[in-house]
Specification:
Layout lengths: L1 E6 L3 H10 L7 E7 L2 H11 L3 E5 L7 H11 L4 E6 L4 H9 L4 E4 L4 H23 L1 H25 L5 H10 L8 E11 L6 H18 L3 E6 L5 E7 L5 H19 L2 E6 L9 H18 L4 E3 L13 H13 L3 H15 L6 H22 L11 H7 L5 H39 L8 H8 L3 H12 L3 H19 L4 H7 L5 H12 L3 H8 L4
Parallel strand pairs: 1-2, 1-3, 3-4, 4-5, 9-10
Antiparallel strand pairs: 6-8, 6-9, 7-8
Length: 532
């Protein structure tokens, strides 16, 4: 279905067009309509129609000017322009803007459907070209490196589908990961030579690591993530490659430090036997890197080593700082792994272990409670959890760790919900700003979104989602509500009220007022003045 929009300030004309268009036969869907250019622009941002039928003469700016603005958003937009004038200049301008047709009023079913058929034919031809095998092959070839990287980063960050489907995608993208075992290593540059740029350092690191891995019988695919860390996917036939991988990375680190002065921190994740489990290996590698950034006494950390350490962190301050960081980042899997690893380490402390674990869990609870309050979660949110947690602190065992982590996950979920509340808060700020600037004729979707610090398109969609109506409809209603109040409580003339509520032209104010209220301003004033 091709999304279609109708723009005309006459509701009767819009209804007639809806009646005479062959929607089903042409595979068209009416997604929105508008009576003026402001509403049309906002509806376009919300629904992104591909075919637009517009009258030339609409309030605010002409249909041709509107077409020019929208074409900058989407060069493929197909316009049909309708006019009540027989003017050669209109025809020339519509052709220049790429309109399919310029139709004169009254519009008949045959002419409008013939014009729409042209628009549909344009899109079908375009779709056929895109769907051709040759086109797809050339597209894949041109964008193969980017597609490979996007696909593999997806495997690294989330659970994926069945092995057979993954292998099919790998073949299509020409990615070689023979397996049958896989591990992920993450390397981050901690010290870079003063005369070396970050991109150059990462390129050198990738080249050196891939070469060393290949020399030792590993297949690798290395990707740089958004935090400028090298994520190396290691493919091997060895089910226990941990020691060899650590040896290779250690040699690479020594070589780069000797040749360039570059220093690294590295983490190695657990070995997995399915591509679909790569995200688990990366999560372990990332946890190991984060631990290593705090430990600082060894350049390579394997995930399995953390469970066997006598003491994972040198001080209580370092473990709590690390856990608070993960909490703020909403990284629950890494946080849960860190808590369990630290409890495992503490359990080896002999007779002091139980007390140390109790103290650690209690202090951890204090930390996340404080962080949650700082992030805006109200005290009342903790009423259901804190009494139970205080009782848990009196006991010991694996269950208490599970319950503490369950509590933590609940609080993180509350914070996610608070983010939605924050969205509502932004809309409230926008509405407050609108109310304070109704007399500003320049106030529009863009100026309000700028004021609250959101992009125009995101604000447009967020406002509609939260309020249930479009921004432009809300703004009109607020201005008309103020105008109604001024009409009944002041001696201001209509043109003065027009200016006071943000309309530079009294004629347009009258048009909008009647559109919203069903009466002209004077009719409304005369009918309602007696009731005050």
């Amino acid at each position: 279905m091709y999304r279609t929009m109708i723009i005309d300030d006459d509701a009767a004309v819009r209804e007639r067009l809806k009646d005479i268009i062959d929607w089903q036969g042409l595979s068209l869907e009416l997604v929105c309509e508008a009576g003026d250019s402001d509403t049309a622009l906002e509806m376009y941002l919300l629904y992104r129609p591909k075919i637009i039928i517009s009258d030339i003469s609409i309030p605010r700016i002409s249909g041709l000017e509107l077409a020019e603005i929208m074409r900058k958003e989407d060069a493929d937009l197909q316009f049909i322009i309708i006019t009540g004038y027989n003017d050669f200049e209109w025809a020339k301008q519509s052709v220049r803007l790429g309109a399919i047709d310029l139709l004169s009023k009254p519009v008949f079913a045959e002419t409008i459907n013939a014009s729409l058929q042209k628009a549909v034919r344009y899109f079908r031809i375009k779709q056929q070209k895109k769907q051709s095998v040759d086109f797809l092959k050339s597209l894949v070839s041109e964008n193969l490196p980017q597609m490979q990287e996007t696909f593999m980063m997806g495997l690294l960050t989330k659970s994926s589908g069945e092995t057979a489907a993954l292998e099919k995608q790998l073949r299509f993208l020409q990615i070689h990961c023979p397996g049958p075992y896989y591990a992920v290593a993450i390397l981050a540059v901690s010290t870079l030579p003063a005369d070396m740029e970050e991109d150059v350092g990462l390129f050198l690191l990738r080249d050196t690591l891939d070469t060393a891995m290949k020399e030792n019988g590993f297949e690798t695919l290395s990707l740089v993530d958004t935090h400028a860390r090298l994520n190396c996917i290691i493919s091997t036939s060895d089910s226990h490659p941990d020691d060899q991988i650590e040896t290779v990375i250690t040699k690479v680190e020594d070589q780069l430090h000797f040749l360039t002065g570059m220093d690294l921190v590295s983490g190695i994740g657990p070995t997995v036997d399915k591509l679909a489990l790569l995200h688990q290996s990366r999560a372990g590698a990332l946890t190991a890197v984060n631990y290593q950034c705090i430990l600082g006494d060894s350049t390579v950390m394997h995930f399995k080593n953390m469970e066997r350490m006598d003491m994972v962190f040198h001080s209580q301050e370092s473990i709590h700082a690390y856990l608070k960081k993960l909490f703020r980042e909403n990284a629950f899997p890494a946080l849960a792994a860190a808590v369990r690893n630290h409890v495992t380490a503490l359990s080896g402390q002999g007779s002091k272990a139980r007390k140390q674990i109790q103290n650690f869990l209690f202090e951890f609870m204090q930390d996340i409670t404080g962080e949650a309050l700082r992030l805006g979660i109200s005290v009342e949110r903790f009423d259901d959890y804190l009494p139970a947690m205080m009782r848990l602190m009196q006991s010991q065992g694996d269950d208490s760790v599970d319950d503490v982590l369950h509590f933590t996950e609940q609080i993180m979920t509350s914070i996610d919900g608070h983010k939605n509340d924050e969205s509502n808060h932004l809309i409230q700020l926008a509405k407050k700003y609108i109310g304070e600037h109704l007399n500003d004729e320049g106030m529009c979707l863009e100026s309000v979104s700028d004021h609250i610090g959101l992009s125009r398109i995101y604000f447009c969609k967020l406002f509609h989602k939260v309020e249930g109506i479009s921004f432009n409809a809300y703004l009109k209603q607020e201005r008309i509500d103020l105008a109604k109040k001024l009409l009944l409580t002041t001696n201001m003339k209509v043109f003065e009220i027009s200016n006071a509520v943000g309309f530079s032209q009294a004629k347009y104010f009258g048009y909008v007022f009647k559109q919203v209220v069903g009466q002209t301003p004077l009719e409304y004033q005369q009918q309602n003045a007696k009731s005050i």
